[in-house]
Amino acid sequence: MKSKIQKIFADTARLHEELREYAPQIEEMLHSVIGKMRNGATLYVLGNGGSAADAQHVAGELVGRFLKERKALPCVALTTDSSVMTSLANDYGTEAIFARQIQALVKHGDVVLALSTSGNSPNILEALKLSQELGALNVGLSGKTGGEMLPLCDHCICVPHVDTPRIQEAHQTLVHIICEFIEQEVILEE
Fold this sequence. Notes:
Radius of gyration: 16 Å
Strand content: 5-15%
Shape: globular
Distance between the termini: 54 Å
Helix content: 40-55%
CATH topology: Rossmann fold
CATH class: Alpha Beta
Strand order of the largest sheet: 2-1-3-4-5
Largest sheet: 5 strands, parallel
């Protein structure tokens, strides 16, 4: 057990070290997101399972606060309304649970952040297709090669690993980076 624990820590540390090389990609993505939010865009975040929890984490940090006191920032996790999600799953199928919310809420110029370790979740893909049609900026956090969501995103950071737990750990670090820079750079008028 001890050797496996040590291997997990080593794998996680090595993966985070590899991600340092993605700094230019991350910076480019942040410039796009921050530019949209400075112009009044709302950030909508979605994911399944652990990625749903990460989506809610982003919204909590931006509507609340991350590191400093400031005005609340417009961010909505599309993973939180159980009545909406279950009625959509029941009436339209699980593929529609995010797309239907995108249709109701997202406007041209908004930002959609999708988290998917595989990049192949049907409900994520449907949501990204629709948000693309609506003129939103699509941003993704994925794993491996980005899967089918890669061409649907304006920016997609693909964590170079195959194990879901390691990908999710990297996504949590990326989420904190995103929140820190949005909080630092998006100043809304009082």
